[in-house]
Design a protein that fits this description.
The complex is a heterotrimer of chains A (649), B (388) and C (426).
Chain A lengths: L1 H14 L2 H6 L2 H7 L1 H5 L6 H11 L4 H9 L3 E4 L5 E4 L4 E3 L5 E2 L4 E3 L4 H15 L5 H13 L6 H8 L5 H18 L3 H10 L6 H10 L2 E6 L8 E6 L7 H10 L9 H9 L6 E2 L2 E2 L6 H13 L20 H4 L2 E6 L4 H50 L7 H18 L3 H26 L8 H23 L15 E3 L5 E3 H23 L1 H11 L1 H6 L4 H26 L6 H16 L4 H21 L4 H18 L15
Antiparallel strand pairs in A: 1-2, 1-5, 2-3, 3-4, 6-10, 7-10, 8-9, 11-12
Chain B lengths: L4 H4 L1 H20 L10 H26 L7 H29 L8 H13 L17 H25 L4 H20 L11 E2 L12 H28 L1 H11 L1 H6 L4 H27 L1 E2 L6 H14 L4 H19 L6 E2 L4 E2 L1 H19 L5 H9 L3
Antiparallel strand pairs in B: 1-2, 3-4
Helix pairs in contact in B: 2-8, 3-8, 3-11, 3-12, 3-13, 4-5, 4-6, 4-11, 6-11, 8-9, 8-11, 9-11, 12-13
Chain C lengths: L6 H8 L13 E6 L7 H20 L8 E6 L5 H14 L4 E4 L3 H13 L4 E3 L12 E3 L8 H10 L5 E7 L2 H16 L7 E6 L7 H9 L7 E6 L4 H11 L9 E3 L4 H4 L11 E4 L8 H14 L7 H20 L4 H8 L3 E3 L5 E4 L5 E10 L5 E11 L8 H4 L1 E4 L5 E5 L4 E2 L7
Helix pairs in contact in C: 2-11, 3-4, 11-12
The chains are: A alpha+beta (649), B mainly alpha (388), C alpha/beta (426).
Chain lengths: 649, 388, 426
């Protein structure tokens, strides 16, 4: 590649005769295409690019890069193009810096930028700057073309970066599979692609396997045939056949109801059509009779049935003689066979990977539900208190995260500050709520529900009044950006993994607190029998307060996590409250494991239903709730039901 | 001597009297009679409030008397609205379509008429086919039957399943909430055949009353609502006063004991649940022609919770309490959010009630639950007992 | 004519003198029917503030017909039936002369019967699905042919997209728009199986699977593009998931019809650079009129606030109404309506908006790329496109047309040459 560039440069020097140079500045070329350069379009920019590349001007290369990066401006007074730099305007040919004047920026759109990238490929593949080589490789990935194969191959040996070398080799393999001249090379390249699940490999193979439909009189053909379809069979490709049959004059578009009406309307004579009084034409049947009479008289074309209702023989026997062939555009059967085999193997793997990916998504959803519900499981399950304001505690946690980010600009640090702070704030709010409200209502569970609902609407509106109704940004630290990629299908974003880890952590912490600490022992004692616990020297008031605080505090932390992956609005809590209740109820009240089971069931179920009906997420939610209602009918106490005395209401 | 039913329940008589006086007064002062002190939009608001009172009475019976905190009764209210809305939309659109097809050179086929109606109704949501659930929409009688049958059956099946497996207390509340959420989510889908998020609109234009001014239409519906409320109130007063009432109240106070006494608790609960669902649907069928539009947003769980809030504020276990609660809170709510309440400048901050009303409602609701568990209705006890 | 004169100077031309306001007994009332609470408050509160700014500006310039203008603000609380109730209240109790309001289609459909019954006048400022033309409503937002179709053309022409994912929130605007786009794309030669449609509920947050589905669409080697009619909050989760999956605008471009400057303010846009939105206005539009409008807005609301497309729609709508009232010499609805036809007012993006007899505006269509600072880089701007009430791409409405000036009908069947109905279908 270097050689080639050198060659270009040398030839430039040789050709750089003074009188030609004057006529061939970059600016001249640009000015001949002034409109296309200033307002380029994907389809029209090709001419400009061809001219620039053909000119061989060394300054064309930096210009193209600058053009793509939107650094080119057009001077308003004379329409000349410059490169905008900090000091002023850079002359494209001489490199001289001119003072700043009124200019307008040239903004090539995405399609044009891609076209420029394609034009730059051949110059950049061996550029010493790795980022430019990378850009060239990406450009090839996006739009593969036969002409790229040779330069790409040539650049592989000289590639110094091992990672990029792998990418280049792989890309060359894909290009070879499609565009190499020797069929044997192509088949080898195709076979080499097996096992690669990426979208572009599948795209390459699918493009090799592209087919067209043709109408033939006989089933025999020299073409590389994928499939044959005979008229009247179930698999007959109606959609593809219709235009072919129409073209061959074997099929006229069906006469629609409105065709019928229009035909009759335009042929009313003395209040009747073909002898049938107009007043009687108010059913489809009489209209058809009238039409057929008109057709018999030759005034209208005969009625044409829709192809879907054809009985194929004997009335349409002539079509039955024809066969629709699905023909590969690739003429060599050996190549299509190899591609077919490779693709089938890949698709099997893809299907398996998709199942795994769906499983990961479901796991992630389950962990989000778990995180949202676990605080509730403690207050509702352990204490029997229904906290409708639980969602608002989630919201408070999320807003805490937002406010912390306002003061602490470093995202990592701010999250580290926000998590304990959210816990502290919602713990405090929970304790306050328990002291002020819930404590008075322990024997009236239904009224706790209503009172906490009152708190919920008040808190929600309060958040609106303070933070406004607009969603607030809660940005995750950079190390949580992106996704963990297992292969080209299975991937999960780091933020979801973080939520999953957080959920596990909570599970461990809560189990530890409940099972291994003094507090946990006291909580369980109060849960089972407050009176007895009190007589053993446990202060139930204090325990209730702490338990409630704990549940609320966890909701606060969940809020930060949910805010990071979704959104922070005053209504975010309401989105999770019903879901959380169902998680707890389905799982079984009073049991952390139950909540885990409930969250898993709901998460996997929702993803499962979505998979069956991918175009309608709303339906998935509806069916899931119906399932839960039915489920509770059969297991009223949830998946993990408490046994013995603790189970009594 | 055995006293008459009314005699036993003087509060019923007082309530009916008050309602009659109120209805007459509103009618006289409305725009329909030409006096116009009460605007048509306020007559509509009052008529809607009466419907809300009726559904609140039903809620009071199921919760205050029977102890089932249903957070799904607004779903039945909504179904009633949808059922009548389907006929209203169909009939109005049909007359428009027939009128527009009159000038055609050849008379339309039944299919063309149906297509045109379908296109008018569903065109705005991007389809034109009539879904199967609209099969009866052309008949007012059948659709009126739907108002009773659909919610009745739904409540019967749901209640049977729930009560049979002894789902009680907060579990039942959450289950009913899930039911209304599922229904709302279902209706939110465009594919539900009820125009998705848009719902059914233009319901205030009653077919057959095209030439009647909205001033009169509003009064007619106001009367209908008042009649329905009176009938519903009487009916429920009768239900909760007799022996049946005692059993029902017994279930509320201690279900197990009533069961041990030999009563089939589930049947009583199922009866109360279903009959209140039907009454809620009737209230809904009267409400939505006055509101003009029904959509799934109306039956999200929050609506049913508000219903419980009204009853709690008004006072549970007394029918007039539910009426007072529904009327008081919903009217107050529209006064505050309508900008009726003056802003309070605090110097450093101005309290605008459109922003702060919900906070006030939430807090006062907590206060009522904590300090006045008997609600506003409890004040009457206080007044009645004081002389003694 | 150049539009170097400011909006404020322009409006001053039509007002009489500042003193005249005092001679007027009753102020001219302008109803503002935007939700200030509930789910839609997020978008609509801004429009209430816009209306207040416009009214203040007009009053400072001498009011209207020698009267002070008074904004009557009510809160329909994102509760659709309340829109009907409040509209009736505004028209009969407050006796306003005009209403500016509504955001969602359902709220407009709720208010429509009342407006038509009482012969009110409303200006509706938001892009919508079309298929409607009411005698009593002026639609200052974009019809599908002023936003969706040009954006799709841009995808086909400039980005060479061959396979489309139409993602939308499940309600009427995305449904109808996607229906129109589906039949438009098929007419443009895109096969039915190359169009993937998905609907999600309001506020949807779990986007991982859907994003993976969209990526998988590229498996047959066609360039994939996403046309998003996702509404409101749900966009935040969607864009976050796109960024997490590492999908750049070069791989799979996304063009959104409901994402503007306001929505982006809830997002970190550094990962979204290059994705697109189509509107009739962007804050980054370069015109003096716009500079002054943005400055006035920031002066009133604060430096961090942004302007957006529906605000411009109200800006044009209000000023057109002011001019029409001045021309008619009265606020009488019928007279004003007649005066509205052909009314011209400068766009904030340059050029002139014209009110057409079908109650829609002729406005330019802009396509912008998201920049790292939450603004849009305008990369394409058409000439004025006349708004079409009834789309040409659905068979049922292709035969319909609206012309209130010549035909006196908003739903006129050109095939049978009859007026289908005078009221609108709500």
């Amino acid at each position: 590649m270097f050689r080639r560039l050198l060659l270009v440069l040398v030839s430039l020097c040789v050709l750089a005769l003074p009188e030609r140079a004057a006529a061939e500045t970059l600016q001249d070329i640009l000015q001949t295409h002034q409109a296309e350069v200033a307002k380029p379009g994907r389809r029209s920019v090709g001419v400009v690019l061809d001219d620039l590349v053909a000119s061989g001007l060394p300054q064309a290369l930096p210009f193209l890069e600058a053009w793509r990066d939107r650094e080119i401006v057009q001077r308003d007074i004379d329409g000349l193009f410059f490169r905008a730099v900090d000091e002023g305007l850079l002359d494209l040919d001489t490199g001289a810096v001119l003072p700043v004047t009124d200019t307008s920026q040239v903004r090539p759109n995405g399609g044009v930028r891609r076209a420029i990238g394609d034009a730059l490929v051949q110059f950049q593949l061996s550029d010493p700057n790795i980022s430019k080589r990378l850009a060239a490789v990406e450009a090839i990935e996006r739009s593969m073309d036969a002409s790229q194969l040779a330069p790409l191959r040539a650049s592989i040996d000289g590639e110094t970066d091992p990672g990029l070398k792998v990418v280049k080799t792989r890309l060359a393999g894909m290009l070879a599979a499609r565009f190499a001249d020797d069929p044997a090379v192509r088949i080898d390249a195709i076979k080499a692609l097996s096992g690669d699940l990426s979208v572009d490999v599948r795209a390459t193979l699918n493009q090799i396997l592209a087919t067209t439909f043709v109408l033939e009189r006989s089933a025999d053909s020299d073409a590389n045939i994928k499939d044959r379809y005979f008229g009247g069979t179930e698999a007959y490709p109606l959609a593809q056949a219709k235009p072919l049959l129409t073209e061959a004059g074997l099929f006229t578009p069906p006469t629609t109801a409105s065709d019928l009406r229009n035909a009759l309307t335009s042929r009313i004579e003395d209040g009747a059509v073909a002898g049938i009084p107009v007043a009687k034409l108010d059913t489809q049947e009489t209209r058809r009779v009238a039409y057929d009479r008109l057709a018999a008289a030759g005034t209208v074309p005969p009625f044409s049935e829709p192809i879907e209702t054809w009985d194929w023989d004997p009335s349409h026997i002539s079509v039955g003689d024809y066969v629709v062939l699905e023909v590969y555009t690739e003429a060599d059967p050996a190549i299509t066979k190899a591609a077919r085999t490779t693709l089938t193997a890949i698709e099997q793997k893809v299907a398996m990977s998709q199942a795994v990916d769906l499983g990961l998504d479901a796991l992630s959803l389950a962990s989000i539900y778990f995180l949202a519900a676990i605080g509730l499981a403690i207050t509702f399950g352990v204490m029997g208190v229904i906290n409708m304001a639980h969602g608002e505690f989630i919201m408070m946690g999320a807003y805490t995260g937002y406010v912390v980010q306002l003061f602490v600009p470093d995202y990592t640090l701010s999250i580290l500050v926000a998590l304990p702070l959210a816990f502290a704030i919602t713990f405090g709010a929970g304790v306050a709520m328990e002291r002020l409200v819930i404590r008075w209502l322990y024997h009236r569970p239904l009224e706790t529900l209503l009172a906490t609902f009152g708190i919920s609407i008040a808190l929600q509106q309060l958040a609106k009044n303070i933070f406004g109704t607009q969603a607030r940004p809660l940005t995750s630290p950079a190390w949580l950006d992106g996704a963990l990629v297992f292969n080209d299908v299975i991937a999960i974003s780091y933020i979801r993994i973080a939520i999953f880890v957080l959920a596990l952590l909570f599970l461990a912490v809560i189990l530890f607190v409940l099972k291994r600490t003094r507090l946990g022992l006291e909580v369980r004692a109060v849960t089972q029998n407050p009176g007895m616990a009190a007589s053993m020297g446990i202060n139930p008031d204090r325990i209730n307060m702490l338990t409630f605080g704990l549940g609320s505090g966890i909701a606060g932390i969940a809020g930060v996590a949910i805010g990071l992956y979704a959104k922070v609005t005053s209504e975010m809590g309401a989105d999770y409250i019903v879901q959380s209740f169902m998680t707890v109820v389905v799982g079984g009240v009073g049991n952390v494991w139950g909540t885990l089971a409930g969250a898993s069931l709901i998460g996997f179920l929702q993803k499962g239903i979505e998979w069956f009906n991918p175009s309608n997420t709303l339906a998935a939610q509806t069916y899931m709730i119906l399932f839960i209602i039915l489920f509770i009918q059969f297991r009223p106490k949830g998946i993990v039901a408490l046994k013995g005395r603790a189970a009594a209401d | 001597m055995k006293k008459t039913f009314i005699g036993q329940n003087p509060s019923v008589m007082w309530f009916l009297l008050a309602l009659a006086v109120f209805t007459l007064a509103v009618t006289l002062l409305s725009e329909a009679t030409g006096i116009g002190i009460i605007s048509t939009s306020f007559v509509k608001t009052l008529g809607k409030t009466l419907c809300l009172c009726l559904v609140a009475v039903a809620m009071d019976v199921v919760w205050g008397y029977c102890g089932i905190l249903s957070l799904g009764h607004f779903a039945f209210f909504g179904i009633g609205g949808y059922a009548i809305g389907m006929w209203l939309m169909y009939a109005r659109t049909e007359s428009i379509v027939l009128e527009s097809l009159v000038g055609q050179p050849i008379p339309p086929t039944p299919q063309e008429i149906s297509d045109a109606i379908g296109n008018q109704i569903f065109g705005v949501v991007g389809s034109s086919e009539f879904p199967a659930i609209w099969a009866f929409a052309d008949s007012l009688v059948l659709q009126l039957l739907m108002i009773v049958l659909v919610p009745g059956l739904l409540a019967l099946i749901f209640g049977w399943l729930a009560f049979r497996s002894r789902v009680t207390g907060v579990y039942l509340s959450i289950l009913t909430q899930a039911m209304t959420l599922a229904l709302a989510l279902y209706l939110f889908q465009n594919d539900s055949g009820l125009r998705g998020n848009n719902g059914l609109s233009g319901l205030q234009n009653i077919p057959g009353f095209e030439n009647t001014s909205q001033a009169w239409v509003s009064v007619i519906f106001f009367w209908a609502s008042a009649l329905a409320l009176a009938a519903g109130y009487l009916f429920f007063a009768w239900v909760v006063s007799g022996k049946m009432g005692s059993v029902v109240k017994g279930i509320r106070d201690n279900e197990a004991r009533v069961r041990f006494l030999g009563y089939h608790v589930e049947s009583y609960k199922l009866f109360i649940f279903t009959i209140t669902a039907i009454v809620a649907a009737i209230a809904g069928a009267l409400y939505y022609p006055q509101a003009g539009i029904i959509n799934p947003g109306e039956i999200t769980p929050i609506a049913s919770i508000y219903l419980a809030v009204w009853v709690a504020i008004g006072g549970r276990g007394r029918l007039y309490g539910a009426v007072i609660g529904a009327a008081f809170v919903s009217l107050l709510s529209s006064w505050f959010t309508g900008g009726g309440a003056p802003d309070i400048p605090l110097g450093f901050y101005t309290i605008q009630w459109t922003d702060w009303w919900l906070v006030l409602l939430g807090v006062s609701f907590v206060a009522v639950t904590l300090f006045f568990p008997k609600g506003i209705g409890g004040l009457f006890d206080y007044l009645v007992r004081k002389p003694s | 004519m150049t539009f170097k004169t400011t909006a404020f100077a322009l409006t001053a031309l039509f007002g009489t003198t500042a003193m005249a306001a005092a001679e007027c007994a009753d102020p001219i009332k302008v109803g503002v029917l935007h939700s200030l609470s509930g789910t839609m408050a997020i978008s609509e509160t801004t429009l209430k503030d816009t209306m207040e700014l416009l009214v203040e500006t007009q009053n400072a310039a001498g009011g209207l017909l020698g009267c002070e203008i008074e904004a009557v603000v009510v809160d329909p609380a994102s509760d659709w039936p309340l829109f009907a109730e409040k509209a009736r209240e505004l028209l009969t109790v407050n006796e306003v002369d005009v209403i500016f309001g509504s955001w969602t289609s359902v709220s407009r459909k709720s208010a429509l019967p009342v407006l038509e019954e009482l012969n009110g006048l409303m200006f509706y400022p938001v892009q919508y699905e079309g298929e409607e033309s009411s005698k009593n409503v002026f639609y200052t937002g974009a019809a599908p042919n002023q936003q969706a179709i040009p954006a799709t053309d841009y995808f086909l022409e400039e980005l060479g997209v061959e396979k489309f994912a139409l993602l939308g929130t499940d309600y009427v605007y995305p449904r109808t728009t996607n229906n129109i786009l589906e039949s438009y794309l098929q007419a443009e030669g895109i096969a039915e199986e190359d169009i993937f449609v998905n609907y999600t509920p309001f506020g949807h947050s779990d986007w991982a699977t859907i994003v993976a589905d969209v990526v998988a669409l590229g498996a047959d080697g066609k360039q994939v593009g996403v046309i998003s009619t996702i509404n409101g909050d749900a966009n935040i989760g969607f864009y976050k998931e796109l960024a997490a999956a590492g999908i750049s605008a070069d791989d799979i471009p996304v063009v959104a019809f409901s994402v503007g400057e306001e929505e982006l303010s809830g997002l970190d846009t550094s990962n979204l650079v290059g994705h697109l939105a189509a509107w009739n206005y962007f804050q980054s539009a370069e015109s003096e009129l716009n500079d002054e409008w943005v400055a006035a807005w920031k002066a009133k609301m604060g430096e961090e606030r942004v302007t957006n497309d529906p605000m411009e729609a109200h800006f044009i709508g209000f000023n057109m109404w002011v001019n029409a009232v001045t021309e008619a010499g009265t606020t009488d609805v019928d007279a004003v309506r007649t005066a509205m036809y052909g009314q011209e007012y400068p766009n904030l993006t340059g050029g002139t908006a014209v009110m057409l007899p079908n109650h829609h505006l002729a406005k330019p269509v802009l396509i912008g790329e998201i920049t790292a600072d939450g603004q849009f880089d305008i990369i394409s701007q058409t000439t004025e496109v006349p708004g079409d009430a009834w789309t040409d791409f659905l068979p049922e409405s292709a035969v319909l047309t609206s012309d209130w000036e010549a035909l006196g009908c908003g739903m006129y069947n050109t095939e049978t040459e009859t007026c289908v109905q005078l009221t609108s279908n709500y």
